[in-house]
Amino acid sequence: MVASPPRHFLQFSDFSRDEFDHLFERTRWIKSRFKNYELYQPLRDRTLAMVFEKASTRTRVSFEAGMNQLGGIAINLNRGDTQLSRGEPIEDVARVVSRMVDVVMIRTFEQSIIERFAAHSRVPVINGLTNAYHPCQILADLYTYVEHRGSISGRTVAWIGDANNVCATWLQAAPIFGFTVRVSTPPGYRLPAGLLDARHCMYCDDPAAACEGADLVTTDVWTSMGFEAENEERKRAFEDWRVDADLMRRAHRDALFMHCLPAHRGEEVAADVIDGPQSVVWDEAENRLHAQKALLEYLVCGRIDAS
Ligand code: CP
Ligand code: NVA
Ligand 1: which atom is nearest the Cα of residue 59? Predict the structure, then answer.
């Protein structure tokens, strides 16, 4: 008998709208049980391996705490502590690790690394951030938007700053959920043309124009992990792409502000915006825990409907 290949979550577009609706329903249910101190442990005796080739606070804590809360255990593998740092091929690491654990989360550099791992893995693989995408972040962010404002369908999201991995993932989510993303970046930092879906994404040279009437304003660091050598040059180029109170005033008066964190106050976002009343950044961070528990449940146990 040939075992069916495992499902992976390597980019946002790997899942259908129906699967996201299911994950949101499970997130709501799992979060509510957790808040009531009710045990829910469908992953007893199951193991998550976490491979980190870049730094992390939220992803590390949310996956490890989430796996423990679901009854399983998490093993943390930093690149420097593994044979990856001494040149073991990623395909061999995938073959070995996936014979020993039930699910794998990887944070790495090129998207091709996680794709090669997944191609040789017997168990589901989750993208915990690559240079290209950060799908777990947008899963939590969309859930957070819905919690605060209801359906995001038909709404407008303004992305201000670097057209990075988080931006690219918002763009993947837009056609699936039926919202529009207005992207504003400095000249020279525009999106690769292939990522612009004309039906759900428009480019604005002026950040104020991108924010006009927006329902959600969001940004991220000017320099992502792996691009540190460009930091000083980027600080100069992005100076006018800071989300401040003036930009927020352009948005809808009920607009939310999101940032995946970590943030640099005074660079991509002013302190009075990230610490102000429209900001939901702490809810976004918390919802990483609940949304990823739903994701782990789905990938390891399959579809569990309301209990
Ligand atoms: N937003 C996010 O992924 O944070 P960490 O880098 O701390 O995991
Ligand atoms: N774009 C940022 C996100 C960090 C969570 C980075 O890749 O460093």
Answer: 8
Do 41 and 170 share a structural domain? no
Predicted structure pTM score: 0.97
The count of structural domains within the chain is 2
| Cα-based distances in Å from 248 to 69, 172, 205, 212, 219 | 37, 24, 17, 9, 12
Nearest CA to ligand 2 atom 1: 224
Among residues 32, 9, 39, the alpha carbon closest in space to that of 296 is found at 9
Ligand 1 in contact with 57 (CB < 6 A)? yes
Cβ(67)–Cβ(87) below 8 Å: no
Instruction: Kindly state whether residues 152 and 237 are assigned to the same domain.
Output: yes
Report the residue among 50, 107, 109, 129 best suited for mutation to probe ligand 1: largest number of ligand atoms under 8 A from its CB.
129
Please count the residues of the chain: 307
The Cα diameter of the chain in Å comes to 62
Domain of residue 128: give its range.
Answer: 12-134+286-300
**CA–CA gap between residue 179 and residue 177 (Å, rounded):** 6
pLDDT digit string, tens, across residues 57-71: 999 999 999 999 999
